[in-house]
Amino acid sequence: MPGPPFGSVFAAVAAAALSAQASVEQFTELRPRAVLIELLKALDTSIADPRSVTDVVLCPPTRIKVRKDGRPHSWYVAFSMNSRTADGGFGGRVMYGGIFKAGRPARIVRTQMPTDEGIDHLINASIRKQMANCPAVPNNQLRELVGATDRPLVDVSQ
């Protein structure tokens, strides 16, 4: 017995994608500001100088999975940024992915390969192509958010 016609399967997939895209605007945890704050919190423990983050490109959430009640359960965000390295200089733009699960801290993974030769070059080129149309976060807005984590600040100037 043949399966459903291609047109009906395609229509169902498109409808699912559209409903997932609509939920990006509907739920505050999927909005750019909330995503960026959570990414900055996660970066606080994974890069040398989290307060030096600059030149962020932030893609909209993808791979959104929803619970039965329609709320998002997990999603993925691709982003790139520049920040200071352990020696104090800026290391250049690096591509990352943020993996989110509702109620848990975001997990950051470096998606950029260490070299730009051979297969690493192909992978890096593919990721750059996927991120080509993602918007940049203005550095002045980014500076405002860098201090928006829940970690207390300690004055160490004295």
Would you mind describing this structure in some detail?
By secondary structure, the chain is an alpha+beta fold. The protein has one domain (6-146). Helices cover 35% and strands 21% of the residues. Strands 1, 2, 3, 4 and 5 form a five-stranded antiparallel sheet that branches. The relative contact order is 0.16. Mean pLDDT is 80; it is low at 1-18.
The portion of residues forming beta strands comes to 15-25%
Q: Roughly what is the average pLDDT, rounded to an integer? A: 80
Any idea what the shape is? globular
Largest sheet: 5 strands, antiparallel
For the CA atoms, what is the radius of gyration? 18 Å
How many individual helices? 4
What structural category do the secondary elements indicate?
A: alpha+beta
Q: Residue ranges: pLDDT <50 for 5 or more in a row? A: 1-18
For the record, give the distance between the C-alpha atoms at the N and C termini, rounded to a whole number.
79 Å
Key features of this structure:
21% strand, 158 residues, 5 strands, 5-stranded antiparallel sheet, 4 helices
Topology:
Layout: H1 6-26, H2 32-43, E1 54-58, E2 62-66, E3 72-82, E4 94-101, E5 107-110, H3 118-131, H4 139-146
Short description:
This protein has 158 residues and is α+β, with helices and mostly antiparallel strands.
